[in-house]
Design a protein that fits this description.
There is one protein chain. This protein has 1 helix and 4 strands. It is an alpha+beta fold and 70 residues long. The strands form 2 sheets. It has a two-stranded antiparallel sheet with strand order 1-2. Strands 3-4 form a two-stranded antiparallel sheet. Strand 3 and strand 4 form a beta hairpin. It is globular.
Length: 70
């Protein structure tokens, strides 16, 4: 896959639905499919999980990250 960096705004309802689906798959130890922008891909069950907080210029950012190798 080519390099890309996509950020998508979404409604609270859509965000919660996505988090719930991801959490359910992780809890079951299963991979899951997700689409961001125009790319659809599978996140493996053994993806590395991390939580990151950044603060800069009066803004805060919280990232829930899943990383894996292809």
């Amino acid at each position: 896959m080519a390099d890309r960096d996509v950020e998508r705004d979404c409604s609270t309802q859509r965000f919660v639905e996505t988090l719930r689906r991801v959490a359910d798959a992780l809890e079951r130890g299963e991979s899951f499919r997700i689409q961001v922008g125009n790319a659809r891909f599978t996140v493996p069950a053994d993806a590395r999980l991390s939580i990151e907080h950044e603060a800069s210029g009066g803004e805060n950012e919280l990232e829930l990250q899943l990383k894996w190798k292809v």
